[in-house]
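hiii so um. not sure if this is the right channel but i have a protein structure encoded as tokens and i wanna go backwards to a sequence. like what aa goes where. can anyone help
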């Protein structure tokens, strides 16, 4: 069912200094290390006035009263509306023990509209006056003004979404589910990290030794395209403009076999194992606590969810390395994420899922028949675009 403004409470927890996940630190880090002071909380219930509840009593009502109002509204089933629903829900949970069930993410809706989700940019487009007293808030009054404006922006986005016929009802559920996943979080296992690091170091050392035994090239510069292409021209008489697996001349050199192919493949392996090793080492600081914000609503321009970002503290579920037949050790990075006791993690790769869904929605029987038959539908699409060519 379509939500309404009366059933919503817009919130912005204000902190000093004004820090957010967009500033490079996750909400968990901010709270755990107490790198901030609570300035207060800005609230707007339904279409009512925006009010600020101050932590030190110097601006607005008392913070405790504000938290009590938020908790009461949420317990009665109100929807939490915020520019960044994930960070605000986490702050409410971690700082005040307030549970959030239903949410609206203003930044996510802005991305749905394909517009900049910066609240300062959004404010004038929504008729909200953004504070201009100081580029960087210097005290409670400035922070309160920013929080109040942010609440007004969040509420305006929510009101806009309600009358947006292009924004389906189910998207509200998707937003809420995303935030619940963020609140639940996920764990990484220190023992598995250490095991993965040891095995990746062994594999890196093997690759380093094998490379050094064949080619006199400083491995510190393997990611320097200028140096590598100069070496290729000097040693093999081959000039490559790009060192990319998507570049046709590069692909042909690898496919041709021989020493040049061996060099290019060895370089790829070394760069890959070093990257995965350094990334896996970095997870050590994440062990023994839960990570939040691993999934973001409508984060890609295609409308897909995305993972990673500051809230996830550098762990990108999408970017975790996969094992290969040549380098099975790479897959160890995926083992560091662990389920809670009594639960399991499942990974699903839904082949051609977008085309399948669209074909069903559009009742394209020919396309559905090809999907049922297991045909390569994208090759079929390409054949229609480039008739007469072998795909």
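sure thing!! here u go:
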């Amino acid at each position: 069912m379509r939500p309404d403004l009366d059933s919503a409470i817009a919130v912005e927890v204000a902190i000093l200094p004004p820090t957010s996940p967009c500033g490079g630190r996750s909400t968990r880090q901010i709270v755990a290390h107490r790198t901030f002071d609570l300035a207060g909380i800005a609230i707007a219930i339904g279409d009512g006035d925006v009010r600020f509840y101050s932590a030190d009593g110097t601006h607005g009502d008392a913070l405790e009263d504000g938290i009590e109002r938020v908790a009461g509204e949420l317990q009665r089933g109100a929807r939490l509306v915020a520019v960044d629903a994930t960070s605000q829900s986490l702050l409410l949970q971690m700082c005040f023990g307030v549970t959030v069930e239903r949410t609206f993410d203003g930044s996510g809706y802005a991305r749905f509209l394909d517009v900049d989700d910066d609240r300062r940019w959004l404010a004038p487009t929504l008729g909200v006056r953004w504070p201009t007293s100081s580029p960087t808030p210097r005290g409670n009054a400035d922070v309160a003004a920013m929080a109040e404006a942010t609440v007004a922006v969040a509420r305006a986005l929510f009101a806009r979404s309600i009358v947006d016929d292009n924004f389906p009802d189910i998207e509200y559920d998707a937003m809420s589910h995303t935030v619940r996943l963020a609140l639940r979080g996920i764990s990484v296992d220190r023992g598995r990290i250490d095991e993965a690091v040891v095995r990746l170091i062994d594999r890196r050392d093997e690759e380093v030794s094998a490379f050094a035994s064949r080619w006199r090239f400083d491995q510190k510069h393997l990611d320097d395209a200028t140096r590598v292409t100069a070496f290729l021209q000097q040693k093999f008489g081959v000039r490559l403009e790009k060192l990319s697996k998507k570049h046709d001349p590069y692909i042909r050199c690898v496919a041709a076999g021989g020493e040049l192919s061996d060099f290019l493949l060895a370089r790829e392996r070394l760069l890959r194992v070093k990257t995965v090793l350094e990334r896996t080492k970095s997870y050590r600081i994440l062990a023994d606590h839960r990570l939040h914000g691993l999934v973001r609503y409508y984060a890609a321009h295609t409308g897909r969810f995305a993972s990673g970002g500051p809230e996830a503290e550098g762990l990108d579920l999408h970017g975790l390395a996969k094992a290969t037949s040549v380098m099975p050790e790479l897959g160890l990075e995926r083992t560091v994420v662990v389920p809670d006791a009594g639960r399991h993690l499942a990974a699903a790769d839904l082949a051609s899922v977008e085309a399948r869904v669209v074909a069903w929605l559009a009742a394209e029987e020919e396309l559905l028949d090809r999907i049922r038959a297991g045909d390569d539908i994208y090759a079929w699409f390409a054949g229609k675009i480039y008739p007469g060519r072998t795909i």
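oh and The first strand starts at residue 8 and ends at 16.
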